[in-house]
Amino acid sequence: MPRAGLTAGRLVAAAADLADEAGYENVTLSALARRFNVKDASLYTHVRGLGDLRTRMALLAGGEMIDRIATAVEGRTGKDALAAFAGAYRDYALTHPGRYAATQIRLDEATVTDSPALRRTAEVTYGLLRAYGLEEPDLTDAVRLLRSSFHGYCALESAGAFGAPRDLEASWDRMIDALHLTLLNWPRRAAP
User: Fold this and answer.
1) What is the pTM of this model?
2) What is the pLDDT of residues 34-73, one digit of tens each?
3) Angle formed by the axes of helices 78-95 and 116-130, to 10°?
4) How many CA atoms are closer than 13 Å to the CA of 187, on its beta-carbon side?
5) 100 alpha-carbon distance from chain centroid
6) Structural contact between residues 128 and 73, judged by C-beta atoms closer than 8 angstroms
7) What is the pLDDT of residue 188?
8) pLDDT at position 30
9) Which of 7, 20, 24, 153 is the least crowded, having the fewest Cβ atoms under 10 Å away?
10) 61, HSE (Cβ side, Cα atoms, 13 Å)
11) Is-annotated flag, keyword DNA-binding (predicted)?
12) pLDDT at residue 1, rounded to an integer
């Protein structure tokens, strides 16, 4: 019989909190069971295992992140929308490092297709890029450029890897300027 008050939702939220506090790699079923003062086996009533828990964390964090991004870009266009998108992305990555790490795992196609949050992520991201006049296959390439730029900057910033005395905000703003110019001048290619 399930322990009173223990649900999959509570477990996933607690796992996300644990990831932010101790690091994504330190989220285990044992650590989570200790939080709830239950035996590890009790968790299997609610999640199928660590892989299932991590997938659920990714979906939770992805939904939280896109909610922030969508709110930030609402009513904005062009460079203003790009800067708002990037700023919300960076804020989430830096303030929720464990949750953010969960968003970086590869999910199977069925999970992606079935997730309203991940579909919304695609809609918001592709909407931003369509405003630059991009269509496939350029959309996919531009999404990859933005994601790798934002992720790389956030990963280096959170690790304290930027050693030059230049202000991080100034460098971030210049990166957004450069990405905006790149998107405006994207070399268009027809789909194969």
Assistant:
1) 0.93
2) 999 999 999 999 999 999 999 999 999 999 999 999 999 9
3) 140
4) 0
5) 5
6) yes
7) 79
8) 97
9) 7
10) 29
11) yes
12) 46
